[in-house]
Design a protein that fits this description.
- There is one protein chain.
- The chain has one helix spanning 74-77; strands at residues 2-7, 13-19, 22-28, 36-40, 45-49, 57-60, 65-69, 89-96, 103-104, 121-124, 157-158, 167-184, 194-201, 206-210, 217-237, 246-256.
- 39% of the residues are buried.
- It has 261 residues and is mostly beta strands.
- It is globular, with a radius of gyration of 19 Å.
- The strands form 3 sheets. Strands 9, 10, 11, 12, 13, 14, 15 and 16 form an 8-stranded antiparallel beta sheet that branches. Strands 2-1-4-7 form a 4-stranded antiparallel beta sheet, with no helix packed on it. It has a 4-stranded antiparallel beta sheet with strand order 3-8-5-6, with no helix packed on it.
Length: 261
């Protein structure tokens, strides 16, 4: 059984629905600060939609449930399309994910800062000024437009000029990774860029790679390494006055090791 519920900050259930292979909920009401959406799934692999203006997310749910904290405050809203979570009509959905094969295991438009029970999940040791438009979750939202900076659709991971900055993607389970594709933020000449970096897995595998100052995909081959997490680290900035290298998107192509279910 799949279910979706909308709950107020004090725990009142505002709307609820269930379904066998999927659940769809049209919630008619204005969200209030502290409201949340609770999803439950029959399977660990599911596809969820938290809003009509946010792309469907392909997620791994080790507990077969997760809570989505609605991003209604001013700063948190800046990384979503205009109209997301606003108004009086909201379309929510969850369904079984029965597809297998190779896909972008890092993509999760429903990722959020803080503790989560839905994966993949991105974290970092620094996010510029702690602002939402520069937080780690932005690099796995699925968007690759990079010739700007700031609010949607140009949200990115900013490092606050830290030389020891790193970002980790946690897949929540062991996966097999063929390659990583990076999109640097390319708001030149405002932006600088990194000329090299390292990807390291939780198993200790290391992949050093060069980077160029360009708007577009840059691929790092991983050769089918198995990992639960990967970390982007040891980033070296180019020699130019700008202090603002930034990452727009990280894609990790591979496949699940465990069976869908």
């Amino acid at each position: 059984m799949f279910s979706i519920g909308v709950y107020s900050a004090d725990g009142r259930r505002l709307a609820f629905t269930t379904g066998e292979k999927q659940a769809n909920l049209l919630y008619e009401g204005v969200y209030q600060e502290g409201d949340e959406i609770r999803f439950e799934s029959e399977t660990a692999y599911a596809r969820v939609r938290v809003d009509a203006a946010v792309d469907e997310a392909r997620v791994y749910l080790p507990e077969k449930r997760f809570t989505y904290r609605l991003p209604l405050s001013g700063d948190n809203r800046k990384v979503y399309a205009p109209g997301a979570f606003g108004g009086e009509t909201h379309l929510l959905a969850i369904r079984v994910d029965e597809e297998s094969g190779t896909y972008n295991l890092a993509c999760n438009p429903a990722d959020q800062r803080g503790e989560v029970s839905a994966y993949p999940h991105a974290t970092a040791n620094v996010e510029t000024r702690n602002e939402s438009v520069f937080c780690a979750r932005n690099v796995i939202d699925g968007l690759t437009i990079a010739a700007g900076h700031g609010i949607w659709p140009y949200e990115s991971w900013g490092i606050g000029a830290r030389q020891d900055a790193y970002l980790t993607v946690d897949f929540g389970r062991e996966v097999e990774l063929d390659r990583v594709v990076l999109y640097l933020r390319a708001d030149f000449p405002h932006d600088a860029w990194w000329i090299s970096g390292v990807i390291e897995t939780d198993g200790g595998a290391r992949f050093a790679f060069p980077l160029e100052g360009m708007d577009g995909p840059q691929t790092i081959e991983l050769g089918g390494v198995r990992a639960r997490t990967l970390t982007l680290k040891e980033l070296v900035k180019c020699d130019m006055p700008s202090a603002f290298p930034s990452l727009r998107q990280l894609m990790a192509y591979g496949r699940n090791v465990t069976e869908i279910g």
